[in-house]
């Protein structure tokens, strides 16, 4: 019997930890909990094994993965290729956010946030997509802050949501945001005054581009979706969130575990329902 493989990035705590724990309960293959810090990641694996009394998964393993470090991403890809030759679920959860009261110059915040949240997620997808099996599910954990209503320039909105947007076009937009942020003129171009928000806008746009690409692939029914987990009580929200990490994991798990040919891709989801990327309103019939 084939041994399916799931991998979660940034999973030693918070929503990523809850997603990995949920996969242990619900997914019958091998689950990889990944994190930058090996000690914290291995400790998280031990905690999950202790917490989940009756796991469905075959095995929970740790693998070191820093999504912003290309060598780390390639090492993880090569390990998975040699060990399994496949990925069935890829959940891109790893990300950073500067606190609202951060004294780090905004240009630096923009650079560092995009380095991890956009470029890191992008290189994980570039390296791991060749390993995706037919019917694989890819989830990019985004945010309601990534809705297009955060952008004040209508032409920029139209560029981002265009079906003709290519990855190189999106790269240019991200680079322009970072450069304009360094000069503190980003809002003049309609960008939000939040590096985190712009990074999530970018990864939702990336989700749509990736889905358009996999539709042309010979592998059947590979689906890429983005989602907002909700306002979750984590270190990132300074524990102000109203949802538990387990509640925040529900929509990513819903998308990751969607059965064959049951769900379309390129969407943005919240509370297990698809939302309009411009407004955040639930789409009719969803």
From TrEMBL:
What are the TM regions of this chain, as residue ranges?
none
- What keywords sit in the KW lines? NADP, Oxidoreductase
Keyword Cell inner membrane among UniProt keywords: no
Single GO molecular-function term?
carbonyl reductase (NADPH) activity
Q: What is the superkingdom listed in this entry's lineage?
A: Eukaryota
Q: Kindly indicate whether the keyword Oxidoreductase belongs to this entry.
A: yes
Its name, as the record gives it, is carbonyl reductase (NADPH)
Q: Which organism is it from?
A: Trichinella zimbabwensis
Gene that this polypeptide is encoded by: Cbr1
């Amino acid at each position: 019997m084939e041994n399916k493989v799931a991998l979660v990035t940034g999973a030693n705590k918070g929503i990523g930890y809850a997603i990995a724990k949920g996969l242990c309960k619900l997914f019958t293959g091998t689950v990889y909990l990944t994190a930058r810090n090996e000690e914290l990641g291995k400790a998280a694996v031990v905690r999950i094994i202790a917490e989940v009394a009756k796991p469905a998964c075959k095995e929970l393993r740790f693998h070191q993965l820093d999504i912003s470090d290309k060598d780390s991403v390639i090492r993880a890809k090569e390990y998975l290729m040699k060990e399994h030759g496949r990925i069935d679920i890829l959940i891109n959860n790893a990300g950073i956010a500067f606190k609202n009261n951060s004294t780090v110059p905004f240009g630096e915040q923009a650079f560092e946030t995009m380095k991890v949240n956009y470029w890191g997620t992008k290189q994980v997808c570039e390296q791991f997509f060749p390993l995706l099996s037919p019917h694989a599910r890819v989830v990019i954990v985004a945010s309601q802050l990534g809705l297009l209503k955060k952008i004040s320039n209508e032409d920029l909105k139209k560029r981002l949501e265009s079906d003709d947007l290519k990855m190189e076009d999106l790269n240019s937009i991200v680079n322009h945001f970072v450069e304009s942020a360094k000069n503190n003129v980003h809002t003049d171009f309609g960008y939000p005054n939040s590096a985190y928000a712009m990074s999530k806008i970018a990864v939702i746009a990336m989700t749509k581009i990736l889905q358009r690409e996999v539709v042309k692939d010979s592998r059947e029914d590979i689906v890429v979706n983005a989602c907002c987990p909700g306002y979750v009580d984590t270190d990132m929200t300074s524990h102000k969130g109203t949802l538990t990490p387990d509640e925040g994991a529900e929509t990513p798990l819903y998308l990751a575990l969607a059965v064959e040919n049951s769900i379309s891709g390129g969407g943005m989801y919240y509370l297990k329902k698809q939302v309009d990327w411009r407004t955040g309103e639930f789409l009719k019939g969803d």
